[in-house]
């Protein structure tokens, strides 16, 4: 980016989106999936100088920020703000910060668990059937030995 663009307050929405995502600690693929997009589309957005309002709203919501935050993001101002307004110096924590990120892991976990339970039920039924067959055969052998 040229110095002239920097001096005029040039804003690159894609770069701002990328920096916001990185600071929050979200992977590109996770955010893309959460938005219902491919990672390629997210990469293209992060390379775009301008991002339309609707798309910004979607991404901002998933990151737990406002579209204005992404539009106006500035590394230097953010670092300055954190250094001068850091409220964590008093040993407080971020326990109340709850980002709204859902990358589908929970849904996948439930699907795998349901599949595991179904497989387990099938195997249990097979074992019960085999056990009954073995018991029946053992009784048949007993009858044959006793001659009844």
From TrEMBL:
- Provide the GO MF annotations for this entry: DNA binding
Q: For the HTH cro/C1-type domain, which residue ranges apply?
A: 17-70
Coiled-coil regions listed in the entry: none
Concerning SMART domains, the annotation shows: HTH_XRE
Q: What is this protein called?
A: Helix-turn-helix domain-containing protein
Q: Which organism is it from?
A: Algoriphagus boritolerans DSM 17298 = JCM 18970
The uppermost taxa in this organism's lineage are: Bacteria, Pseudomonadati, Bacteroidota, Cytophagia, Cytophagales
